[in-house]
Amino acid sequence: MPAAITTLRSTLATALANVGVWTVFNHVPEIPLSNSLVIANDDPYILVNSNVKTAIAPTVRFKLFLLVPVMDNLGSQTKLEDYYLAVMQKLAASGLTINITSFTAPAILETPSGNLLQSEAGLEIISEWS
Fold it and tell me: Which of the following CATH numbers is that of domain 3-128: 3.30.450.40, 1.20.120.350, 3.30.2000.10, 3.40.350.10?
């Protein structure tokens, strides 16, 4: 089901909500938090495959950042892997037409509030012009 570009970010955030497990940000927060998912624009952001913008549904690209606290290596890795599975299940249930391009290898993210382990996923969503 295509979602309008104007509401796609909030639609995606709602689909990924997981109260008590992680916080979803539909924008890049000033300071990233542990146990959160951040939805950010990817580059290129909107792909159009036609000269007639209303004839072809645009593809909207996002990066989804998954952030967990840095614990021992195995604990953080396991938590990220649990997030991968939960994200895939939530996106499958969302009704959105989504292509997940990949999940990156975990990396340390240094923030003012402490270090986090992060991984990112590329998302491509078929949308509509409205």
Answer: 3.30.2000.10
